[in-house]
Amino acid sequence: MKKDYWALILGASSGFGEATALRLARDGFNIIGVHLDRQATMPNVNKIIREIKLAGVQAIFYNANAADEFKRNEIITEIKSSLNHRPFIKVIMHSLAFGTLRPFIPEENEQAITKAQIEMTLDVMAHSLVYWVQDVVTNNLLAHNARIFAMTSSGSHSAIPYYGAVSAAKAALESHVRQLSVELGSKYSASVNSIMAGVTDTPALRKIPGNANMIDIAQSKNPHGRLTTPEDIAKVISLLCKEGGEWISGGIIHADGGEDIVNYIGQGKKS
Description:
Layout: E1 6-10, H1 15-26, E2 30-35, H2 42-54, E3 59-63, H3 69-82, E4 89-94, H4 115-138, E5 142-152, H5 164-188, E6 191-197, H6 203-206, H7 211-221, H8 230-240, E7 252-255
Parallel strand pairs: 1-2, 1-4, 2-3, 4-5, 5-6, 6-7
């Protein structure tokens, strides 16, 4: 029966989205992946698709801007046809990491973030979750007892240089998760959660100014003495998709080995 169901992964070509797509494929879910890649990174996308199919399930991937309303409508229409208008989307994962990393108040020789950049960051990294879920629901594609996940970070409640707009997006995303968990819980028995990963060496992290220092601090703080990996997050999501996970909803799941609760370097694992 599971192989009738699909997981919709937004941001499926790298990092958390890639790892989760592969893990859920091994769990028996067909995978719909939405990603935005240029020619240079398409070989990895094709590799992901091959690995999904080797797991014995189907893979449908769309190379498109997931935050573009026209593209979203096109993809939803195609998904509806592929699923024969049946409510077979059992998992939705929002892992879109595209925002502007600029200060609110710039130093000399820096540029301040603009209104348009703040709005774009929140639209891509937060509001798009709502729009995708709305379209899945209104097109009768959401399965009963579905699981919805959105990737947040410690930036939602802390200040990080150049990360202000993304921090705002993560805080908004967590709010959207709470609201969706209430609105979807009664009618669809869906559970909706934010997943807060620890610092993870992904392409998105490498774009943050000062990322090398962030990595060093996280390794020092984490009680396990290492960074979080995309596979760590994929395993958590896989676990929450199993029977019994449906009663966990509306919260922030800390999947970081205890990193976020350590508030100074040296409190974590001893060297």
